[in-house]
Amino acid sequence: MKNIGFIGTGSMGSLIIEAFIKAKYIPQKNVHMLNRTMEKPLKLQEKYKKTTIHQNVNELLRDCEWIFLCVKPHEMVAVLESMKENITTNHIIITITSPLQVEESERILQPSSIPVVRFIPSIVNLSLDGPSLVTFGSQCTKKHRKELWEMFSSISRPQLITPPITRVASDIASCGPAFLSFLLMKMIKGATDETEIDEETALKIMERMIIGYGETLRQQHFDLETLKKRVTVPGGVTGVGLKVLEDEVGMMFHHLFRETEKKYREDRRKIVEQIKDREEP
């Protein structure tokens, strides 16, 4: 088994580490971590005692073949630059941030021809299921793609995506759980404000409904549209509720995607500027 390095052990970095260990795809002894501060990797090491913590990027590159970069978007360019001196063609770089394109990562790592893949996870991958988004760089061979796909499939259901849909696909796969949680909490608030149900009971029913809902889709009893039709009896209560949703939701999600695209463009602009500044003599 290859040694897998993780630069950044924050929210998503630690989630990915835990998911791979839970899936038994990466043994603890093959997990190597590097973080700006020691608190987070030490906390993970308390739970997974056979993991290794490194002090600098050169140590990590020496001991690992595949490297996950789990840092914030504005830190990604500098981290890639710091790897250039000791990186080799035996390494594969796996970025998890949407604003940085794979071809840009490849360009930063030149003159070495380093395979780069972008893997955008979702919090639901901790259940060893749910979507992840994958974009392979030009240096990834068929062998690389097969091995990486197998690894990603151990904790998720990977979906190949192209750059133009990166942000919207991430909104659905990665931001979607937060958006849905917000809407469900609003539904519970409405229920408790307008009826005699208490919050604890409403929350318990809602969580069980969502688990069953996901399992129903998993077992392919219905798709989204046929499920809605099956529940909606003509002249029934569900139809009345759906009419309220149709009237009230309106362009809400159009506005949501416009705002996330706007933020994405701003993040892209900053990364492009960082790359340009480093390329200028």
Task: Write the SSE topology.
Layout (H helix, E strand, L loop, with lengths): L3 E4 L3 H12 L8 E4 L4 H9 L4 E2 L3 H7 L2 E4 L3 H11 L8 E4 L6 H7 L7 E5 L10 E6 L5 H12 L3 E4 L5 H29 L4 H20 L5 H8 L5 H13 L2 H28 L2
Helix pairs in contact: 7-8
Pfam family, one: P5CR_dimer
GO molecular function: pyrroline-5-carboxylate reductase activity
Protein name: Late competence protein ComER
Q: How do the SSEs run, as a string of H and E?
A: EHEHEHEHEHEEHEHHHHH
Secondary-structure-based class equals alpha/beta
Average pLDDT, all residues: 95
Q: Percent of residues in beta strands?
A: 5-15%
Query: Span from first to last CA?
Result: 41 Å
What is the number of beta strands? 8
Keywords: NADP
Domain Pyrroline-5-carboxylate reductase dimerisation: 168-266
Protein name: Late competence protein ComER
Binding site for NADP(+): 7-12
Written overview of the protein:
This protein is α/β, with parallel strands linked by helices and 281 residues long. It has two domains: 4-161, NAD(P)-binding Rossmann-like Domain (Rossmann fold, 3-Layer(aba) Sandwich), CATH 3.40.50.720; 169-256, ProC C-terminal domain-like (ProC C-terminal domain-like fold, Orthogonal Bundle). Helix content is 56%, strand content 12%. The chain is built from eleven helices and eight strands. An eight-stranded mixed beta sheet has the order 3-2-1-4-5-6-7-8, sandwiched between helices. Helix 7 (166-194) packs antiparallel against helix 8 (199-218). The chain is globular, with a radius of gyration of 22 Å. The mean pLDDT is 95.
